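Handout, page 2. Input:
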Amino acid sequence: MTDIEMIIRPYLPEDENAVILLWQECGLLRSWNDPKADIQRKLKVNPELFLVGLINGKVAATVMGGYEGHRGWVNYLAVDPRFRRQGIGRQMMEAVEARLQGLNCPKINLQVRESNKEVITFYRRLGYAVDAVISLGKRLK
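Output:
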């Protein structure tokens, strides 16, 4: 684990630029993602599940949780590359999982690009397993 002190709290509007920069540094953004729009949409639904991790007062990690009453979802888990492999990602996941459990969420889903083997290994270490499902999607915008 780590002896780095991190404060985890809900996202605040003044975090926007730092959060977007972190997502860029972590390679989470794609051409079809508008991070500002993603943030604004998130703030309308379960904003308390959008968490940031602060190290020395600066955004070093994020996780965006969601729950619509049936399943929980996790998106935008990001850890500053300088702090990886120190338990920061695990702490962020534990924080969002605890909040989802507090909402009586029975199961959490997340999606990882199948080429991202390192991240798949990370989630497996946290107890996540590949579901025997096919993920389908339809872009509306």
